[in-house]
Amino acid sequence: MPVFWAEGCEVAAGLQHAMSEEVKQHPPLQVLSPPFMAIAQAMGCHPSHSDEVKAELQDFLVKQRPEIAASIARQGLGGMRTA
Length: 83
What we know:
By secondary structure, the protein is mainly α. The protein has three helices and no strands.
């Protein structure tokens, strides 16, 4: 955002949480909705691992969704969600 302010730009793009924080500090700004893109996070393992390991990793991620969502909520990170 320093360039946005220094150069007098009319439009800025960035992570939704960071942009939302900027709007809190500068109420005339507005975050457009819906977001124009999403950052997909991923986890994987080496292809040489067995199908059992891959299945266990997938199961782990599914089981962690509630904890990840709770962590996001605890930290007050608006605009984030788990898939």
